[in-house]
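Thread: quick sanity check before group meeting

JM: Hey all, I'm pulling together slides for Thursday and realized we never actually wrote out the predicted structure for the chain we discussed last week. Dropping the sequence here so it's in one place. If anyone has concerns about the input, flag it before I start.
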Amino acid sequence: MSGPIIVTAAEAERDQRAAAGALAHGGLRPGDRVAIVAEASAAYLAVTLGALRTGIVPVLLNPDLAPTEHARLLADADASLVLADADLPPLLDGAPVDLAGAPARRARAR
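JM (edit): ok, ran it. Output follows.
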């Protein structure tokens, strides 16, 4: 087992801006939902925070759930995009965008 991944504040900010830019370039806008079904990683954190800081709502699903559970949750989530582990690192190569200083969106009860 490898040790913890260490990310500096500057790297985290850079990756969040790039991920947010990639999501926007992919057509997501504030209020849209992006489902993320992936293991914890630096890319997972960057995509999640980049989404939040641009008003995109991340829907975080445990990758260890059964396929039927994923299907049920995804149907309810109304996500515009579903991302898995392999989808996350390429998002860190997106064109950076400006971010809010804090999450720009909260999930609303339906």
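AS: nice. The chain has a mean pLDDT of 92. Residues 9-25 form the longest helix (17 residues).
JM: adding both to the slides.
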